[in-house]
Amino acid sequence: MKAMKKEFFDSLQEYNRLLEKKDALERISWALDFFERKVILSSSFGAQSVVTLKLVLSVWPEIPVVVIDTGYLFPETYRYIDRLVEELKINLKVYRPALSPAWFEARYGKLWEQGKEGIEKYNQIMKVEPMIRSLEELEARCWISGLRREQASTRRNILILTWHWDRAKLHPIADWTTERINEFIYKNKLPMHPLAFEGYVSIGDIHTTSKLEAGMLPEQTRFFGIKRECGLHEAKETFQGR
Questions:
Q1: How many Cα atoms sit within 13 Å of 138 on the Cβ side?
Q2: Which of 22, 190, 195, 221 fits a 20 to 30 Å CA distance from 213?
Q3: For residue range 90-118, what is the model confidence (pLDDT) as tens digits?
Q4: Nearest-5° angle of CA 126, CA 77, CA 184?
């Protein structure tokens, strides 16, 4: 990994100049070739996840698709995952935290009700640890994520390609607008998350997700507006350029 890291840091700006000129499918193909298919796709199976799923699967139908099951997803999300797995023939890899929800609450209580520090500890235990484990066990050199610059202020400056948790991370639709997302879903007749019709724009755990209400920014519908990111897209060492 150290050799890969040095090579990456030296060439990351060049890679991004190249990838900015490509479309989403070309970016995905580039990553699969460059990393010799040691690539996984992470998905929350949220409101817009079907777009990235459709794009990546059209290039490599057998790609491992990782979902982190905290045990606190909406019932609608679990049913939506089942539906997409069947319809899109997804090679699903489910990763879970070491503790069940009941055991977690017995040990720590409802951390998500304990302010920013509690939320971050919850995310680390229930989301970050199983995600890192998935990357290690699946021997991923690169992981693909559906983050977009338009989604939140925390994502406004994301590059197409970054370095995250000692691996490359590709955001093939980083420059897509919400309008383009909706057009793609409509054109391809893709099934949408049922909660998207009820005012949910970003869908995570049931206890830290709320509907978009008048006067709210979309990023305020997660974690009571205290923070936007769940920890999976935050890292102590995330390299985005010199």
A1: 27
A2: 190
A3: 999 999 999 999 999 999 999 999 988 99
A4: 115
The tokens for 217 are 């920014």
- How far, in Å, CA of 154 to CA of 234, rounded? 10
Give the residue among 58, 110, 46 at the shortest CA–CA distance from 88: 58
- Cβ contacts of residue 38 below 8 Å, gap of 6+? 139, 140, 141, 142
Helix (H, G, I), strand (E, B) or coil at 75: helix
Catalytic choice (126, 160, 230, 232): 230
Q: Are 190 and 37 in contact (CB under 8 A)?
A: no
- Rounded to two decimals, the pTM is 0.88
Determine whether 142 is an active site residue: no
**Torsion sign (Cα): 230, 232, 236, 239:** negative
- Which of 202, 203, 182, 173 is CA-nearest to residue 55? 173
Describe the crossing of helices 49-59 and 24-34 by its angle, rounded to 10 degrees. Answer: 60
pLDDT in tens, 12-55: 889 999 999 999 999 999 999 999 999 999 999 998 999 999 99
Alpha-carbon dihedral angle through residues 216, 222, 228, 232, given to the nearest 10 degrees: -160
* 229 Cβ contact partners less than 8 Å away, ≥ 6 residues apart: 154
Q: Is 94 helix (H, G, I), strand (E, B) or coil?
A: strand
End-to-end Cα spacing for the chain:
19
Phi, psi of 57 (to 5 degrees): -65, -25
